[in-house]
């Protein structure tokens, strides 16, 4: 199982004259928590969309979970989970109904569905709120439920696009426990964030500036490389080089 | 197909959770039918008629007695010629029938005689629609039987002899409601998912985008079918529209119209990114043209010449025309094949264009 779960070579995405993603290459191994950092407008989201099969690369190649991102987008979709900062559950459905919907979408059998949902609710210690409308939950809880929904079908890899935006520090801490838990069970985590304390939790981190990956290593090594104390300083040193504005 | 089923279920839940909207949608047809059927009417009903007849002979009595026995008119008695204005102004009568001095004598003469019996009808035309339809109906009541062979004109009102305005409005309401529910509600519901960001998550999932769309259409399709049922029942039992041609034809063409409206909704959803935009497009592109150009409110023949071609591209025009013919004249579906084929063609084109646009938009 040494082959990387994500393998990307010279991936590019152009919109007319604008090169959003410029020749990026990297590997992510199984079970890793991979932090994908970059200032707003650096091209993170575009790169992530290509990996999820939502957007077609202009050039370059890549595989996710062993499937080609150019030709096998549909197969990738059933092997990944996805959660975005924009809240992705339905407010007018209950926690249970939301979970059941996504279980159905990912083709889980009836028994698998109920079992998975029970597990998730237990993990969240949330069984009592099973029939609460999601709209009535506080944001932190919504995001935790959203994460559970994204991993309900036991994906090999889960993409998290700024999952903790706007969430309080305690809930963020709890959220990262969920992430660690999933990673310990073999799920690869691909996460973007603007919180540098979260970057410290990642096994490896890449930093994108103006569509290119400028740095890629473990947080410890990056700090050594730039001879600074925190990821925050690493990020600021790199992001300051950006010419592109939002 | 498991995913598809859960999706249809989810859409149904959305509709049920928004209980108020659901009730509005289910009650709109009933309210409109009752409103147009009873409250807003241009039909002849309880019209008070006074009569001026200087010489009250046999023929005059016959005519007056017909008036008295007609359920749509109320005979308010005889008045003098100089009281006409006062009677109308005071609201004691809405119409006055003035019989010729020699009405009896002339009626007795042969058909080809030069001097014909005349009746003048004076109406309060403050309410133009009611006045003009009363005039026609009053004329036909007064000139019935013996007189008809001699009168100058003899209007026959087929299919809707009482000029019931509800008859005219029911097809119009159908044309409006189905496009409202299918096109507007569906497009808003698709755009809502774009706006909230859930669409993105769905696109990352293995569900095929087109399944998402079809799953959204199904509950609205069922809801509109339920409305169709309500409308037909109300039309038959509350408004007493005979529908002698049977309802199968009406149902078939209505289902086609539903599909057309759903395609419209899909097209709008590809053009709009905000629920508000979707609503606005629905209102401007659909509601107004339907009201103005479909013949729902105003006859197409009354449109200025340059605007008449515009009405040809409004699907509701063909649908309403066909339903009128089938519902009121009792024609079979075959007789409106022209309308049906035009609607079918429009459906095919719309569905094709909107599906293509939908797919283009995804990449």
Would you kindly provide a written description of the structure presented here, covering whatever features stand out?
The complex is a heterodimer of chains A (246) and B (363). Chain A is 37% helix and 25% strand. Chain A has 246 residues and is α/β, with parallel strands linked by helices. In chain A, strands 6-7-8-3-9-10 form a six-stranded mixed sheet, with helices on both faces. Chain A has a four-stranded antiparallel sheet with strand order 2-1-4-5, covered by helices on one side. In chain A, helix 3 packs across helix 4, helix 3 runs parallel beside helix 5 and helix 5 packs parallel to helix 6. The radius of gyration of chain A is 18 Å and the shape is globular. The mean pLDDT of chain A is 90. Chain B is an alpha/beta fold and 363 residues long. Chain B has two domains: 236 residues, no CATH class; 103 residues, abc type-2 transporter like fold, CATH 3.40.1710.10. Chain B contains 14 helices and four strands. About 2% of the residues of chain B have low confidence. Classes of the chains: A alpha/beta (246), B alpha/beta (363). At the A-B interface, helix 2, strand 6 and helix 3 of A face helix 1 and helix 8 of B.
CATH topology of chain A: Rossmann fold
| Terminal residue distance of chain B | 24 Å
Number of domains of chain A: 1
What is the strand arrangement across the widest sheet of chain A? 6-7-8-3-9-10
Short description:
The complex is a heterodimer of chains A (246) and B (363). By secondary structure, chain A is α/β, with parallel strands linked by helices. Chain A is built from 9 helices and 10 strands.
What keywords describe this structure?
heterodimer, A: 246 residues, alpha/beta, Rossmann fold, six-stranded mixed sheet, four-stranded antiparallel sheet, 25% strand, globular, B: 363 residues, abc type-2 transporter like fold, 2 domains, four-stranded mixed sheet, 64% helix, 6% strand
């Amino acid at each position: 199982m040494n082959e990387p779960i994500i393998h990307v070579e010279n991936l590019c995405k152009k919109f007319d004259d604008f090169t959003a993603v410029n020749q990026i290459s990297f590997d992510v191994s199984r079970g890793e928590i991979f932090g994908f950092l970059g200032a707003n407008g650096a091209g993170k989201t575009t790169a992530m969309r290509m990996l999820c099969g939502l957007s077609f690369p202009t050039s370059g190649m890549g595989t996710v979970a062993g499937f080609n991102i150019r030709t096998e987008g549909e197969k990738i979709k059933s092997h990944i989970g996805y959660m975005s900062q924009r809240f992705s559950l339905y407010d007018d459905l209950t926690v249970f109904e939301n979970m059941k919907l996504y279980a159905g979408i990912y083709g889980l059998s009836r028994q698998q569905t109920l079992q998975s949902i029970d597990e998730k609710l237990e993990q969240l210690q949330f069984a009592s709120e099973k029939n609460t409308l999601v709209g009535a939950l506080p944001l932190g809880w919504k995001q935790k439920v959203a994460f559970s929904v994204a991993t309900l079908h036991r994906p090999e890899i889960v993409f998290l696009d700024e999952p903790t935006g706007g969430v309080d520090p305690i809930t963020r801490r709890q959220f990262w426990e969920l992430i660690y838990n999933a990673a310990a069970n073999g799920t690869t985590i691909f996460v973007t964030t603007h919180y540098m304390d979260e970057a410290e939790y990642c096994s490896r981190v890449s930093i994108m500036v103006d569509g290119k990956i400028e740095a890629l290593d473990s947080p410890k090594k990056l700090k050594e490389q730039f001879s600074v104390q925190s990821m925050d300083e690493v990020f600021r040193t790199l992001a300051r080089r950006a010419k592109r504005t939002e | 197909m498991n995913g598809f089923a859960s999706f249809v279920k989810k859409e149904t839940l959305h509709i049920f959770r928004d209980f108020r909207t659901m009730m509005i949608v289910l009650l709109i047809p009933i309210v409109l039918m009752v409103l147009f059927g009873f409250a807003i009417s241009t039909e002849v009903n309880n019209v008070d008629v006074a009569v001026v007849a200087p010489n009250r002979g046999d023929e005059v009595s016959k005519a007056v007695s017909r008036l008295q026995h007609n359920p749509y008119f109320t005979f308010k008695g005889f008045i003098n010629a100089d009281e006409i204005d006062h009677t109308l102004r005071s609201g004691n009568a809405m119409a006055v029938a003035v019989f010729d001095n020699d009405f009896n004598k002339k009626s007795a003469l042969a058909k080809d005689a030069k001097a014909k019996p005349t009746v003048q009808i004076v109406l309060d035309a403050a309410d133009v629609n009611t006045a003009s339809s009363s005039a026609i109906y009053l004329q036909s009541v007064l000139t019935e039987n013996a007189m008809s062979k001699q009168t100058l004109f003899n209007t026959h009102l087929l299919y809707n002899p009482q000029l019931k305005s509800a008859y005219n409005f029911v097809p119009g309401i159908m044309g409006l409601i189905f496009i409202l529910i299918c096109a507007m509600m569906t497009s808003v519901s698709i755009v809502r998912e774009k706006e909230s960001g859930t669409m993105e998550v769905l696109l990352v999932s293995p569900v095929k985008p087109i399944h998402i769309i079809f799953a959204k259409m199904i509950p609205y399709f069922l809801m509109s079918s339920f409305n169709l049922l309500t409308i037909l029942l109300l039309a038959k039992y509350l408004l007493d529209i005979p529908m002698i041609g049977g309802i199968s034809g009406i149902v078939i063409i209505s289902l086609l119209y539903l599909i057309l409206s759903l395609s419209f909704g899909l097209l709008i959803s590809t053009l709009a990114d905000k629920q508000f935009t979707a609503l606005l497009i629905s209102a401007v592109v659909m509601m107004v043209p339907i009201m103005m150009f479909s013949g729902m409110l105003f006859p197409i023949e009354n449109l200025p010449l340059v605007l008449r071609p515009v009405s040809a591209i409004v699907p509701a025009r063909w649908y309403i025309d066909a339903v009128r013919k089938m519902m009121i004249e009792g024609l079979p579906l075959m007789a409106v094949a022209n309308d049906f084929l035009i609607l079918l063609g429009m459906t095919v084109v719309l569905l094709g264009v909107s599906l293509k646009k939908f797919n283009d938009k995804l990449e």
